[in-house]
Structure formats: C-alpha cells, structure tokens
C-alpha cells in the first residue's frame, strides 16, 4: 500500500482536469494570464482574504513574502526546525538568519511561549508552520501577541488548505500566508505552484513585483531582490477546477484519520487525536519509540511509511557547526519517534483497516 496514491486522484478528477487543460490549450496563454487571475480571486475568497499572488511554488511564496515584509541580510526570522527545511531554505534565500523555535509535543508546532522568546531575541518576522494538517492551537493568541509587538506573522499553510478554527480559515490569522500546491498537498496541482495570500494590498502588490523581475511595467525593472517565480495557466486552471472539491476531500481525509486513530491500539504507538474542522489530516503521523522496527514490520507487510522529517533543520549537514549550540529538546526527541502512515482521500475503509491490523499485530 502506498503512502499516497496520486494515480487514484488523477483518475477521480480526470474529466474536471481535462476540461481545464483543454481550456488553456485553446486559449494560447500559458503563464500569468486570466486563469492565474481567476484562481487568485477564487482562492482568496475561499480563505476569506482580499488578495492572493500566484507563484511558482510554496518555498518561493515564503521567500518572496519575507522579502516583501522587508526581510534581508542582517535580519533574523523565527521558524520551527521540524518542518522539512522549507522555511529555513526561504529564510536563507532572503539573506536572513533563521532563529529556531522549539515545538509543542502534541501539536508539534510553535507555541506562544516560543514566539515570545523569538520576539525578545529581536526577530524581524515570525513564521509559524501548521504541521500535518492541524491548525496551531494557540494561533489566535500568537497572532495577537505579534500584532501587539509590531512583528509581522507569516503562516506556512502548505499542509493546511481548508482547515478552520472558530470559523476562520488557516492563513487568515497572521499578516500573510503561504500555500504550496505541490501534487501531494491537500489542494494539489499536477506540477508546482504556490501563493501568498493576505489582506494587505501593498504586500500583495510587492509580491507581484518580486515574482516577475521587479518590473513595474514591461521591461522596466525597479524593485530589488526580484526574480522569476510565476504560476502557469495550466496549474491555475487545474487548481480552480479542484478547489470546489477540497472540502469534501478534506472531510474524507479526516474520516480516514479518525478510523485509524480509533482502530490502532498498541502500547508503543501514540496516534493523533480525532479532529474537527481545525484538522485536515494532511499527513497521518504517529509516534513510536522503536520507530525503525515498526517501519520494518510495515514494510514486511507491504505497507509504505515515511518520516516527515528525519533531520531537524538546525542539524542539516549544510550548516556544519553553525547551529551546534542550539538545543531544541522536543524537536530533537520527536525526530526519532515520528512515523507517517498511509492516509489520503482515495483510501478505502478496507485499506485503513489493513493498516490498523498490521500495526496492532506488531509484536513487542
Ligand atoms: C510542501 C511544503 C512547503 C514547500 O512547498 P513547495 O511547493 O514544495 O516549495 C513549505 N512548507 C511546508 C510545511 C510544506 O509541507
């Protein structure tokens, strides 16, 4: 069994996808055109935000949002170290230095206390990552705290499309939000894509300048720090076609995850709690002290698993000794215990039951 089955997804939405692709083929317009403008509007409206800027991918979205917030060399940007290096890569690309926050053991995300420490340290921007499809439980108080201290808050929403807390969409709490539409995401294209979403018109306008050479008009480059990070028409048209399907797909993800959590009963395996609208089950991640042995057992029974993510950012080889002094107790413990099990909308109840049976049969 695969961790995720993109063939099943492509088959399920084939007619929607084909119609979108045909429309773009017929239009003869392939990059930053009417389909991008339409998706920007549709997705902003879906989030309850005013503006959206379509970009080449989610990591670019973080980098260009940071640059649009004025981040550059000499600045520090707060981020967690357990979210796959994406934000850290974007921070480095902006010329700034990452300031690593530890995470909460349960939500595996930043806490108000960690954000407070980062702001005391003097970070220019705080980036928080909603991990595995769960809205950060303290996001509203983190947003209030950042606003009170005049420090912009950027939400990394690459794993949280469509989640809502108290009726508010993930991505609408901070000053801006970054989304990725990589094919495996909850809202996924058939290639790369991303957006920055915000209520701040100036910020959205700056991102749109940064995504296309800093042009203020054609061939007139005026804005420093810019490059090419455009969204193409095919991906935008496909995303517009799939957006109306997102809530139903998320509901099914939540259902599969709940079935797994109700069914898995093993003394060494900690499952995520069943969630409501604040949880869109992007990845189903359990904790297990003997993670490698469990992985082997799953593999022997034909079930794929993965570790998201096996190396904490501050321990990545590229840094050498640069962050050797940084200790993130919870992050470093979780890295050795987390394991992602199959969970995706096209998965059947029978497949979920098979995962449950194999985990529960794992002998201690
Ligand atoms: C996927 C992902 C990104 C990056 O998106 P890309 O489109 O692959 O660049 C950023 N942050 C998180 C948490 C992600 O899961």
From TrEMBL:
<dbReference type="GO" id="GO:0030170">
    <property type="term" value="F:pyridoxal phosphate binding"/>
</dbReference>
<dbReference type="InterPro" id="IPR015422">
    <property type="entry name" value="PyrdxlP-dep_Trfase_small"/>
</dbReference>
<dbReference type="InterPro" id="IPR015424">
    <property type="entry name" value="PyrdxlP-dep_Trfase"/>
</dbReference>
<feature type="active site" description="Proton acceptor">
    <location>
        <position position="185"/>
    </location>
</feature>
<dbReference type="GO" id="GO:0000271">
    <property type="term" value="P:polysaccharide biosynthetic process"/>
</dbReference>
<dbReference type="GO" id="GO:0008483">
    <property type="term" value="F:transaminase activity"/>
</dbReference>
<protein>
    <submittedName>
        <fullName>DegT/DnrJ/EryC1/StrS aminotransferase</fullName>
    </submittedName>
</protein>
<keyword id="KW-0663">Pyridoxal phosphate</keyword>
<keyword id="KW-0808">Transferase</keyword>
<dbReference type="InterPro" id="IPR000653">
    <property type="entry name" value="DegT/StrS_aminotransferase"/>
</dbReference>
<keyword id="KW-0032">Aminotransferase</keyword>
<comment type="similarity">
    <text>Belongs to the DegT/DnrJ/EryC1 family.</text>
</comment>
<feature type="modified residue" description="N6-(pyridoxal phosphate)lysine">
    <location>
        <position position="185"/>
    </location>
</feature>
<dbReference type="InterPro" id="IPR015421">
    <property type="entry name" value="PyrdxlP-dep_Trfase_major"/>
</dbReference>
<dbReference type="Pfam" id="PF01041">
    <property type="entry name" value="DegT_DnrJ_EryC1"/>
</dbReference>
């Amino acid at each position: 069994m695969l961790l995720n089955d993109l063939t099943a997804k492509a088959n399920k939405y084939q007619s929607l996808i084909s119609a979108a692709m045909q429309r773009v083929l017929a239009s003869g317009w392939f990059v930053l055109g009417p389909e991008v403008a339409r998706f920007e509007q549709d997705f902003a409206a879906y989030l309850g935000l005013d503006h959206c800027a379509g970009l080449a991918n989610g990591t670019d979205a973080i980098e260009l949002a940071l640059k649009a917030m004025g981040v550059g060399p000499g600045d520090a940007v707060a981020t967690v170290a357990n979210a796959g290096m994406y934000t850290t890569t974007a921070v480095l690309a902006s010329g700034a230095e990452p300031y690593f926050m530890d995470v909460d053991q349960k939500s595996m995300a930043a806490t108000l206390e960690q954000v407070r420490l980062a702001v005391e340290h003097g970070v220019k921007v705080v980036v928080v990552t909603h991990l595995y499809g769960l809205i950060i439980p303290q996001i509203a108080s983190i947003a209030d705290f950042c606003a009170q201290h005049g420090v912009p808050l950027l939400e990394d929403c690459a794993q949280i499309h469509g989640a809502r807390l108290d009726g508010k969409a993930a991505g609408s709490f901070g000053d801006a939000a970054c989304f990725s539409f990589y094919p495996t995401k909850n809202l996924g294209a058939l290639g790369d894509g991303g957006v920055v979403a915000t209520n701040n018109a100036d910020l959205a306008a700056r991102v749109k300048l940064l995504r296309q050479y800093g042009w203020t008009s054609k061939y007139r480059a005026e804005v420093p720090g810019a490059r090419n990070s455009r969204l193409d028409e095919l991906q935008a048209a496909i995303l517009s076609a799939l957006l109306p399907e997102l809530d139903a797909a998320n509901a099914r993800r939540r259902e599969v995850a709940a079935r797994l959590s109700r069914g898995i009963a093993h003394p060494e395996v900690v499952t995520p709690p069943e969630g409501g609208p604040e949880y869109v089950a992007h990845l189903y991640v359990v904790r297990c002290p003997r993670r490698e042995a469990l992985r082997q057992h799953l593999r022997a029974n034909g079930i794929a698993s993965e570790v998201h993510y096996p190396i904490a950012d501050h321990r990545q080889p590229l840094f050498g000794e640069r962050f050797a002094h940084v200790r993130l107790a919870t992050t470093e413990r979780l890295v050795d215990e987390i394991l992602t099990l199959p969970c995706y909308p096209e998965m059947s109840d029978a497949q979920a039951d098979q995962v449950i049976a194999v985990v529960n049969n794992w002998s201690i």
